[in-house]
Amino acid sequence: MFSPKVWFITGTSSGFGRCMTEYALSQGDIVVATLRKPEVLSDLAARYSADKLLVLKVDVTKQEDIDHAFARTREVFGRLDVVFNNAGYGLFMEAEGTPIDKAREMFETNFWGSTNVSRAAVKFFREVNEPGKGGILLQVSSAVGLNPLPGLSYYAATKNALEGFSEGLAKELPPSWNIKICIIGPGAFHTNGINGVVLPQHPVYADESFATSVMRRTIDGAVLEGDAKKFARTVYQVVQEEKIPQRLPMGLDAIEMLTAKIDSLKATVAETAGWSKDLKRESGGVGPII
User: Fold this and answer.
1) Can you give the pTM of this predicted structure?
2) What does the CA dihedral 73, 113, 121, 4 come to, rounded to 10 degrees?
3) Contacts from 49-58 at CB under 8 Å and sequence distance 24+?
4) By CB count within 10 A, which of 88, 203, 272, 284 is most buried?
5) Angle at the Cα of 160 from the Cα atoms of 159 and 165, rounded to 5 degrees
């Protein structure tokens, strides 16, 4: 007998969030769709009944919005199976020229917003769901979270920070809670919404041969190869399998970037391991803690 899952999805106005919402609904599941402008989902609200789709106004930079959304989820559905932690955006500019206030705003959404949703999700899975039922927390990161590209230094930093938080959180959770965390690392996907902001180039980087100049020419008007609808379908299939990986790179470009990072780290270990051979205290001490 089919038992629909309850999804809590952030950033549903466009992009991955919208695609994931549409696909989960099409499969008969229930979705709590959160976004800053609920009217954007008026078409979906007209197609699906209230017992299938709950649309809530949420700005993830506001803790009260997050708390209210999870409280409403408990009130309406009484349980929660999957949190698709997706709200965020990118900022493209040379690090040296990026306005600090813009970088901080992005961190408020991509890192603090995402981690505050994560904390609320874990608490819900543990305290509202039946004991031991747990839940699945899907953290939408990016391939550049592990392997940054020029012009995306601050954006990559937000995702790298989210990944570090997610790995640490996963190690803190007792197995008996049955809470699974998966870091999703998409490569380049073409979506139906604007999820990135390109700022004017810093004049000292204007040389056409510089890395960020090359990137600017590459992304200008680009139609990316990744299909966001196929992304949503694949993520849904992974959830149904219930064998949740800690990391889920998405797209052959993401696999290539991850492989390059692994190769780079292996080369670093081979090159530098010798410098660590004689760094212990002569008088001894507590053994390794990592």
Assistant:
1) 0.94
2) 50
3) 52/25, 53/25, 54/30, 56/32, 58/10, 58/34, 58/87
4) 88
5) 95
| Residue whose C-alpha is closest to residue 168's, from 239, 112, 110, 118 | 118
Kindly list the catalytic residues: 141, 155, 159
Give φ, ψ of 60 to 5 degrees.
Answer: -70, -10
Q: pLDDT tens digits, residue range 89-128?
A: 999 999 999 999 999 999 999 999 999 999 999 999 999 9
CA-to-CA distance for 218 and 196, rounded, in angstroms?
A: 14
Q: Where are the domains of the chain?
A: 6-275
Other beta carbons within 10 angstroms of residue 191's beta carbon come to 20
Residue entry with tokens 């493209």:
92
Q: How do residues 61-97 score in pLDDT, each as one tens digit?
A: 999 999 999 999 999 999 999 999 999 999 999 999 9
Looking at residue 224, the DSSP 8-state letter turns out to be -
Report whether 119 contacts 70 (CB < 8 A): no
CATH architecture for residues 6-275: 3-Layer(aba) Sandwich (3.40)
Give the contacts of 78 (CB within 8 A, at least 6 positions apart).
128
